[in-house]
Every structure is written in C-alpha cells, then in structure tokens.
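for the writeup, i need someone to sanity check this before i put it in the appendix. the sequnce is what the collaborator sent (i think, or maybe the updated version? ugh). structure was predicted straight from it, no edits. if anything looks off just tell me and ill rerun, i have time this weekend
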Amino acid sequence: MEVEFTVLSDRREGLLRGLGNVIIQSGFTLLRQRMSTLETGIQLWLRVSGREERLLELEERLGTHPMVLSFESEHQVSPHSTQPSRSVAGPASARRPPRVASNLPAGGSSGPAVGQVEAELPGLAREYPRIFPRLLGLREKLPDGQKAASMEFAGRRVGSWVYKRDYALGGRLDLPSALKQIALPALRNLLSTDLKENSLRIKNNPLCMPGSHCRAGDFFSGFLRGVLDESGVGGQVTVREIYCRSEGAEDCVFEIVN
C-alpha cells in the first residue's frame, strides 16, 4: 500500500533524515518528499509504500517522534486489501502521549478502538502514575471484541510516552540492561515489580483480579513493548504473559525475549 503523510514540525534541520529513519525502521520505503515553510512551522509531505499490517506501527512512531508537532495521513490501500481507505490526524508532544484520531468503526475485532483510546490519553498523562481507575473505566467502555487489542494499544502509547519523558537521554542498551534500567523502574512507578532474568513479576495487578479469568495482561504487554521499542531493542522483542493473577497465579509474570 501507499500512504501520504503531511507532517508539521518546528525544526527543519534533521527533519527529513529523522523521519526517513523512522520510515525505514517501520518497514516502509520513502518514495517522494516535499518540504515547505509555513507561518505555523515546517511542513513535510511524504509519500511512502509498505506493508499494510505495519502501518499502525509507523503511525505510532510518527506520533511519538519528538520533532513531530502533528501529522495527517491519507491511506491509499491496494485493491486486494481488506481494510478501507482512511485518514488519520494527530498532534504529538514529547510531554504527553500522542493522540491519533481514526474514523475506523468502533465495532468488530480487527484492531484497537483507536478513537476511544486516544480520548483517554491526556487523562492518563495528567493522572500518571495513578492511572488504574481510568484504565478500568476505559476497559469497561470498550466493545468486547476490541478490549484486548485496545488495552495493548493503550499500553504501547503510554509506555512510549514514559520512555521519552523519563529515559530518552540514555544510550542504546541490550535487552537485559534495558529490562533492568528502563522496564523495571518504569513498572515500579505503577506497581510493585520484581525482575528475574528475562521475566518481570507484577504484584497485585488491579487489571487482573483473582477469579476474573480475564487474562488481561494486554496493557502491560503493550507498556513493555512501548518502553523497549523506544529504547532501541524493539523490532525483535516479544512480550508474553506466562502467569496471570486472574487465573489463580500469585502474580502476573511477563516473559520478554528477542
């Protein structure tokens, strides 16, 4: 598929190089670009091509990039695609989670309820780290078929924002170092957490009450993906919940491998 992005930034120097790297890392190819100066900042138009299933990843990376103030995209989907063409627009900020608005329908199970999640992001940023009441309220409002994908999506947004706010000045780390120096302290801001080798144990997870059989590790799976992707060990990282408090385990345990 091909997508056209219109990006607004407050900086010209390094803008094309920085976003070009984002495009390549997301598995897309830059076809054409055009830059112009507006009263509101620098506008960069980009036309890219790539695999449709990686489009959400590219939009997330653009939405959290520190040089991007806002962006709009026009999706031009191939005739064989099962997804409709759509437009996405969203402001971004280094101090709050990015907002991405979508006109995808709220029903169905094809992906996250992006519009509902993005509406909660400013509140999550404002109330962080006391975010569980809002997360529980969000989950209750989500369509059943989209709860898991939407909570994972919310986790990735919040995790990416936390990394940029608290850890972005650090150097590139390998996975064990990133778990110890980034993922563990980031989780400990939310709940009591222990690290053993490549497994993180979260205690008293309020999203997974005993007996609920919810297997609701989606938010924390997304959160860990968000902070680790931004730390430079993403792309090959897999996060898997191997024990869940809701199913009788003492704690929720997440295994991270690459």
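The two ends are 28 Å apart (CA to CA). The longest strand covers residues 29-38.
thx in advance!!
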